[in-house]
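Re: the request from the purification team.
They wanted to know what the chain is likely to look like in 3D before they choose a buffer screen. I agreed to run a prediction and write the result into the notebook, where they can find it.
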Amino acid sequence: MRNLKSAFLLVFIISATLCFAQSRRKIIINEDCSGPGGSNMQTVAMLVQSPQAEVLGVTVVTGDAWRDEEVAHTLRLLEIMGRTDIPVVPGAAFPLVRTRAEAQAWQERYGKAAYAGAWDERWWHEASVVPPLPEGQPTTKAANENAANFIIRMLHKYPHEVTIYEGGPMTNLALAISLDPEVPHLAHQLIFMGGSISPQTDNPEFVSNPRHEFNFWFDPEAAAIVLRAPWKKIICTPVDVSVKTHMTAEMVKQIEAARTPLARYISKFAMLTPGADIMWDEITAAAWLDPSIITKTETRYMTVDLDRGAGYGNTLTWSKNGNLTPATQSVQIQFDLDIAKFYRIFVDLMTAQTPH
C-alpha cells in the first residue's frame, strides 16, 4: 500500500510539473542589456522571476552600451539569480547602417542628442572593451550562436508560441527577418519599448524633439524593417507612457527588505545607470504579464523617418494606412497605465524567490 501511495504521489507531482510547464508562456528577451541595475537589467529580472514566463534566452544587442559589455552584465545577473540555465546570446555589435561618426556629424548639424547610448562621449570606449563590472565579472560564458539564428531556431522549434520582447535597438530582429522572412509569421507577437509620439515631460531628451526616441534613433533602418514586417500583433510601449513612471527610494527599500540575491543586487545598483529613475522597459514586460495595467491604448500605423535630415530616426505614425504612407503595420500603442498596480507587480517580482 505504501508503495502504491508513493507511486500515485509521483504521478501527481510529474503531472503537476508538466501542467505548470505547459501553462508558462514562451518569450525571447531581446535587450540592450546595459548595467548593472537599471531598466534593462530589471526587465530581464522581471521576466525571469515571473512564474508565467518561460524565458527561452536573452539575445543581446548594442544600444545603451556595447554588446560585449552588455553580455557580461547579463551573464552576471543570471549568475546572481541562479538562472545560468538561460542562454545569453550575443547579437549585433553595430547598427545596420548608422555609425558613430555619422551620428556625431548629424548632431553637429541638427543639435546634440541628450543621450547617445554606447556612442555617448560621457562613457565612450571601444566596442571590444569590457570594463571591470561593479557587480563582479561573470564566470559563465555566452552561447556559441548569434542572436538572429537563435531567434529563427526558437521560432521554428515553437511555431506561433513565442513572444518576442524587444527593449533595445531592433538590429537583431531586422537581421533575423532578413535571413528568414518567416520570422514574423512564426512568432506569436512582438512587444517592444520604443518610439515617441507626444510625451508630456520636461526631460531634455524630448523637449525640443518629442518624436525622437533612442532605440529608433540608434538604428533607424532596423526599426523600419521590423515595423513593416507582417507580425500577427505588435504592441508598443512608447516614451509617452514610460515617462509617467519613476523608480523611487521607497520601492528600492521595499525590495531590499527581501534580502534575496536579486533584492540585494537591485538595492545596490537600481539607480546607478543614467536615466534609471524612469522605468522605460519594465512596463512592456509587466503589461505582457498582466495587460490590465494598461488603461489607454490607440491603434496606429507606425514607422521611422529614414530621410537623412533633422528628423532621421524619428517616430512616424498615421491613424489610417492610406496610399500616401510607406509600408506599415498596425501597432497597439500604450498611452496610460495603472501606476500603482504596475509598481506592485514590479516590487512583488523583485522580492520573490527566483523560480527554477
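For the purification team: The CA atoms of residues 97 and 221 lie 7 Å apart.
Please add any questions underneath this entry.
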